[in-house]
Amino acid sequence: MFAYSLFDTAIGRCGLAWGPRGVVGVQLPEHSEATTVTRILRHCPHADEIAPPKAHARAIEDIQALLSGEKKSLRTITLDLSRVPAFNARVYETARAIPPGTTRTYGEIARAIGDPDGARAVGQALSRNPFAIVVPCHRVVGADFKLVGFSATGGIATKLKLLQIEGWRAKEPMLFEGLV
């Protein structure tokens, strides 16, 4: 059985979808609640909206805490990676190790998974990340630590907002001029 639940956070109403093997999707806020629901249902089209069972309620609490500025690790949340390509799963697991408030480059992730020339492939995998915030793709930045490549609503401005909530400070403020 697949199900989902919507929940409020400091950045808006998010969604969490799960099945028998764990979380299958996390949705950051969209322009409307209806759009958030539509996007979360991409991960499990026939899911019912229900109150989350204990493990998923804990995941929601942890996401809410992180989005409120707590240095909360989301690594204990069980993800169902069975529906993502093996390469993407390796990228997601590696990205999950990035602590809140810090960043790694696409190239660093590529090297960490044994594909030193795979920065673009890492970017493509993260652009398809169904587990936004739990797989912290917002913590992955371009070469020279430029903020690039964020597909959530609001794009790079949302990426910057998430990083700032986590206490991240740009090493090169000029690279982000106009976003703050």
How many separate domains?
Answer: 2
Uncertain stretches: 172-180
Question: Number of helical runs?
Answer: 6
Predict the CATH topology of the largest domain.
Arc Repressor Mutant, subunit A
Distance between the ends: 43 Å
Strand order of the largest sheet: 3-2-1-4
The largest sheet, given as strand count, sense and whether it forms a barrel, is: 4 strands, mixed
Q: CATH-wise, what's the superfamily of the largest domain?
A: Winged helix-like DNA-binding domain superfamily/Winged helix DNA-binding domain
Q: Helix and strand string, N-terminal first? A: EEEHEHHEHHEH
Highest-level CATH class of the largest domain: Mainly Alpha
- Report helical residue fraction: 25-40%
How many strand units? 6
Proportion of residues in extended strands? 15-25%
Computed structural class: alpha/beta
Quick gist of this model?
The chain has 180 residues and is of the alpha/beta class.
Which structural traits does this protein have?
single chain, 180 residues, alpha/beta, Double Stranded RNA Binding Domain, Arc Repressor Mutant, subunit A, 2 domains, four-stranded mixed β-sheet, 6 helices, globular
Give an account of the 3D structure.
The chain has a four-stranded mixed β-sheet with strand order 3-2-1-4. The protein has helices spanning 33-40, 54-67, 86-95, 106-112, 119-127, 155-165, and strands at residues 3-9, 12-19, 22-27, 48-49, 104-105, 140-141. Strand 2 (12-19) and strand 3 (22-27) form a beta hairpin. Helix 4 crosses helix 5. The chain has six helices and six strands, in the order E-E-E-H-E-H-H-E-H-H-E-H. The protein folds into two domains: 3-67, Double Stranded RNA Binding Domain (2-Layer Sandwich), CATH 3.30.160.70; 86-169, Winged helix-like DNA-binding domain superfamily/Winged helix DNA-binding domain (Arc Repressor Mutant, subunit A, Orthogonal Bundle), CATH 1.10.10. With 180 residues, the protein is of the alpha/beta class. The model is unreliable at 172-180 (pLDDT under 50).
